[in-house]
Specification:
Elements lengths: L2 E6 L3 H16 L3 E2 L8 E6 L4 H18 L6 E6 H6 L1 H5 L5 E3 L7 H11 L2 E3 L22 E5 L1 E2 L10 H5 L3 E2 L2 H13 L4 E5 L7 E2 L2 E2 H11 L4 E5 L8 H8 L7 E3 L7 H6 L6 H14 L4 E8 L6 H14 L3 E6 L7 H5 L6 H24 L5 E9 L6 E5 L5 E5 L8 E9 L3 E6 L2
Parallel strand pairs: 1-2, 1-3, 3-4, 4-5, 5-6, 7-10, 10-13, 14-15, 15-16, 19-21
Antiparallel strand pairs: 8-9, 11-12, 17-18, 17-20, 18-19, 20-21
Helix pairs in contact: 7-8, 8-9, 12-14
Bound molecules: 5'-deoxyadenosine and iron/sulfur cluster.
Length: 435
């Protein structure tokens, strides 16, 4: 009765959290299973960022019920952001036995045994201190190449559209010494890439250590490992951090910098604490200090009261910056957020969809142009494994996080290979090995 299967939805932070959960459960005698039908406990680590993320998970919860028919003792658990947001409503659905919020994972072994003896259990207490600092995650990357390290939890920004501060609680930074220790362990275990994760990495602060200091310390502690980080906030990204990036060869040249909108009026309603001009100035600084740095973004189309002119401002900022890639969404009202309380969700769905499609069409062209600028260049690529389409080809990412594919039957996951770009699509650089 101790086999656990966990599905993970949402952001990279949730992937890192699932690794922490497996570690906590493993110490308590539970074992991980890879397929759902052998599980005694099925859990989903969930996301609440948009309504469709939650709808998808409700669909999975219904699906999990089908396993209860053959396995009446089966426990279904909901972890993460949706657990935190919906709390008792999940238990009241009659389909869920365990509800554990992002700061409640240490209590999971107790909850599981209490659940067996006395029925459904819920723990959605948020903490001001929990960072799971000393828990050694069970790494789920099967290639053993790339590891996530969570450096902070929660968020204090309270952007008006966003549910995260409510589901993940107040911001807290993890002790930098435990981060360095974990990075060194990853390196010793053969990992070749580390991604430092936080909702807003630039506001990392542990005693005297800022994010710039942490990034430098990690890069110098594991010089043979590539370092990435996510997510940056335009408001807080510091010159000092950019200088650390520029002066350390093993820090990848990629910054994920969510713009959300190109209109100052909308940015203010979103409670983003920067203007369009501030964003453009930050981009200029990044390009001055790290000329080949890729910049990717997130954007929300059709936020409350967005006019056609506001939307055009968004298209214009995309053109001006020429993002290398973007995650693009239309606005989904989240109950309890400032925007839901204060502003009507008044852009109709057809308009939201049309504006989103316009942004996607534009970004598709910008992504292609970005890749075309790389034709003829050479890059060092960290091999992830065989390409999806052709077993005679390998794939991996360059420093800018662009996917590269090239014919190769010699190298293996974790190797560094030098390639030259011959052709490209909007999503991929088609390359040749340079010997
Ligand atoms: N509706 C649509 N997109 C959202 N995001 C966050 N909240 C919402 C919402 N209510 C997007 C933002 C954020 C990304 C992770 O998800 O662009 O950067
Ligand atoms: Fe989803 Fe945000 Fe929670 Fe990540 S932090 S799981 S993106 S709601």
């Amino acid at each position: 009765m101790n086999k656990v299967y966990i599905e993970t939805y949402g952001c990279q932070m949730n992937v890192a959290d699932t690794e922490v959960v497996f570690s906590i459960l493993g110490k308590a005698g539970y074992v991980r299973c890879e397929t759902i039908d052998e599980a005694d406990i099925i859990m989903a680590n969930t996301c609440s960022i948009r309504d469709n993320a939650e709808q998808r998970i409700w669909g999975r919860i219904d699906y999990f019920q089908t396993f209860k028919k053959h396995h009446p003792e089966l426990i279904v658990g909901i972890l993460g952001c949706m657990a935190e947001r919906l709390k008792n409503a999940l238990i009241e659905s009659g389909k869920v036995d365990i509800v554990a919020g992002p700061d409640a994972y240490r209590s999971l072994p107790q909850m599981l045994s209490d659940c067996r003896s006395s029925g459904s259990q819920i723990n959605v207490l948020l903490s001001r201190e929990e960072t799971y600092a000393e828990i050694e995650p069970v790494r789920l990357d099967r290639n053993g190449v790339s590891a996530f390290i969570s450096i902070m939890r929660g968020c204090n920004n309270v952007c008006s559209y966003c549910i995260v501060p409510y589901t993940r609680g107040a911001e807290r930074s993890r002790d930098w010494k435990s981060i360095i220790r974990e990075a060194c362990q990853c390196s010793q275990n053969g990992y070749k890439e580390i991604t430092l994760l936080g909702q807003n990495v630039d506001s990392y602060q542990y005693e005297d250590m800022s994010f710039a200091g942490l990034l430098k310390a990690v890069a110098e502690a594991v010089p043979g490992v590539r370092i990435r980080f996510s997510t940056s906030n335009p408001q807080d990204i510091s010159d000092e951090m950019l200088e650390v990036m520029a002066s350390h060869d093993n820090i990848c040249h990629h910054i994920h910098l969510p713009v959300q909108s190109g209109s100052d009026r909308i940015l203010e309603k979103m409670r983003r604490r920067y203007t369009r001009q501030w964003f453009l100035d930050r981009v200029a600084k990044i390009r001055e200090l790290i000329p080949d740095c890729a910049i990717t973004t997130d954007v929300i189309a059709g936020f409350c009261s967005e006019t056609e002119e506001d939307h055009k401002d968004t298209l214009r900022i995309f053109e001006e910056v020429s993002f290398d890639a973007a995650f693009m969404f239309y606005y989904s009202e989240r109950p309890g957020t400032l925007a839901a309380r204060k502003y009507p969700d008044d852009v109709d769905l057809a308009t939201k969809t049309r504006r989103l499609e316009e942004i996607i069409a534009l970004q598709n062209r910008l992504s292609l142009e970005s890749n075309q600028r790389d034709l003829g260049k050479t890059f060092t690529v960290l091999v992830e494994g065989p390409s999806k389409k052709n077993p005679e080809e390998l794939c991996g990412r360059n420093s800018q996080n662009k996917m590269c594919v090239w014919p190769d039957t010699v190298h293996k996951a974790g190797d560094l290979v030098t390639v030259k770009v011959l052709e490209c699509t909007q999503a991929t650089l088609l390359c040749q090995e340079v010997k």
